[in-house]
Write a structure and sequence with these properties.
The protein is an alpha+beta fold and 65 residues long. The chain has helices spanning 4-23, 30-41; strands spanning 45-51, 55-61. Helix 1 (4-23) packs antiparallel against helix 2 (30-41). Strands 1-2 form a two-stranded antiparallel sheet. The relative contact order is 0.13. It has one domain (4-61). The protein contains two helices and two strands, in the order ααββ. Strand 1 (45-51) and strand 2 form a beta hairpin.
Protein backbone atom coordinates (compact mmCIF):
# COMPACT_ATOMS: atom_id res chain seq x y z
CA UNK A 1 0.00 0.00 0.00
CA UNK A 2 1.33 3.42 -0.94
CA UNK A 3 1.60 6.23 1.57
CA UNK A 4 0.03 9.65 0.96
CA UNK A 5 3.50 11.09 0.27
CA UNK A 6 4.16 8.43 -2.38
CA UNK A 7 0.81 9.05 -4.04
CA UNK A 8 1.35 12.81 -4.12
CA UNK A 9 4.85 12.30 -5.48
CA UNK A 10 3.52 9.97 -8.20
CA UNK A 11 0.80 12.44 -9.15
CA UNK A 12 3.33 15.30 -9.29
CA UNK A 13 5.59 13.22 -11.55
CA UNK A 14 2.77 12.32 -13.90
CA UNK A 15 1.53 15.92 -14.02
CA UNK A 16 5.03 17.13 -14.90
CA UNK A 17 5.40 14.41 -17.52
CA UNK A 18 2.08 15.38 -19.14
CA UNK A 19 3.09 19.05 -19.27
CA UNK A 20 6.36 18.10 -20.96
CA UNK A 21 4.61 15.81 -23.43
CA UNK A 22 1.99 18.42 -24.28
CA UNK A 23 4.65 21.04 -24.96
CA UNK A 24 6.12 18.78 -27.67
CA UNK A 25 2.74 17.82 -29.11
CA UNK A 26 2.85 17.47 -32.88
CA UNK A 27 6.61 17.00 -33.14
CA UNK A 28 6.56 13.21 -32.71
CA UNK A 29 8.99 13.37 -29.80
CA UNK A 30 6.70 12.55 -26.88
CA UNK A 31 7.55 8.87 -26.51
CA UNK A 32 11.27 9.48 -26.90
CA UNK A 33 11.26 12.23 -24.28
CA UNK A 34 9.08 10.15 -21.95
CA UNK A 35 11.49 7.23 -22.25
CA UNK A 36 14.46 9.47 -21.45
CA UNK A 37 12.82 11.01 -18.39
CA UNK A 38 11.58 7.69 -17.03
CA UNK A 39 14.77 5.66 -17.62
CA UNK A 40 17.62 8.16 -17.30
CA UNK A 41 16.28 10.60 -14.71
CA UNK A 42 14.24 8.22 -12.55
CA UNK A 43 15.87 4.81 -13.12
CA UNK A 44 12.57 3.32 -14.23
CA UNK A 45 11.32 1.46 -17.26
CA UNK A 46 8.81 2.06 -20.03
CA UNK A 47 7.20 -0.91 -21.76
CA UNK A 48 4.68 -1.09 -24.59
CA UNK A 49 2.29 -3.98 -25.16
CA UNK A 50 0.54 -3.69 -28.51
CA UNK A 51 -1.84 -6.00 -30.36
CA UNK A 52 -3.09 -5.32 -33.89
CA UNK A 53 -6.63 -3.97 -33.76
CA UNK A 54 -6.54 -3.88 -29.95
CA UNK A 55 -4.54 -0.71 -29.28
CA UNK A 56 -1.49 -0.22 -27.11
CA UNK A 57 -0.81 -0.31 -23.38
CA UNK A 58 2.15 1.58 -21.90
CA UNK A 59 3.53 0.37 -18.58
CA UNK A 60 5.62 2.86 -16.60
CA UNK A 61 7.60 1.59 -13.64
CA UNK A 62 9.50 3.99 -11.37
CA UNK A 63 11.34 2.81 -8.27
CA UNK A 64 10.35 4.26 -4.89
CA UNK A 65 13.32 5.88 -3.23
Amino acid sequence: MKSITQLISSMAFLSTLMIILNSYCGYGMGLSISYQIITEKHGGSLQCVSLPGQGAEFIITIPIR
